[in-house]
Amino acid sequence: MEGDYCSTTISSEKRKQRQQQEKPYRGIRMRKWGKWVAEIREPNKRSRIWLGSYTTPIAAARAYDTAMFYLRGPSARLNFPDLIFKEEDEDEVRDMSAASIRKKATEVGARVDALQTSSLHDHHASISQSKSSSRVSEPPDLNEFPNPESSDED
């Protein structure tokens, strides 16, 4: 029986590690095709509020945080507690409808997703630019007709 207990413990530990890799933040999951999605349960209901589909896990997590803050208030357990905008009145925050919460969360998620993907593209562009600038010769202009004097057939 000890072997059964040990294997169960090991498999549950492996499952936890796999979940941490698959779900780096609370309230999000990754689709099979690589998109990150966020959703949240409404308090005291079985229904969920769909918070959107995002390119980056951070954007999905920020959408979740926004919705969680509007549902639970300042005591909510968030992925990024320092990044929540807390100027609104607490009573006003808790009286929002599911549609209003979804709208706020998807706005934040979309904004973060745009920033994340543009900074990622900028990073890749700067890498490819630095690689191309390290070349000795300029790439040929493919829109220009070849000059017969500079042909390599000599």
TrEMBL record:
Family statement: Belongs to the AP2/ERF transcription factor family. ERF subfamily.
Polar residues: bias regions: 1-11
Recorded coiled-coil stretches: none
Claim: DNA-binding is one of the keywords in the record: yes
Domain AP2/ERF: 24-81
Pfam families: AP2
Purpose: Probably acts as a transcriptional activator. Binds to the GCC-box pathogenesis-related promoter element. May be involved in the regulation of gene expression by stress factors and by components of stress signal transduction pathways.
GO CC annotation: nucleus
Keyword field contains 4Fe-4S: no
GO-annotated biological processes: ethylene-activated signaling pathway
GO molecular function: DNA binding; DNA-binding transcription factor activity
Regions of compositional bias (Low complexity) in chain numbering: 126-137
Region spans: Disordered: 1-24, 113-154
Cell compartment(s), UniProt: Nucleus
Keywords: DNA-binding, Ethylene signaling pathway, Nucleus, Transcription, Transcription regulation
SMART domains (alphabetical): AP2
Name of this protein: AP2/ERF domain-containing protein
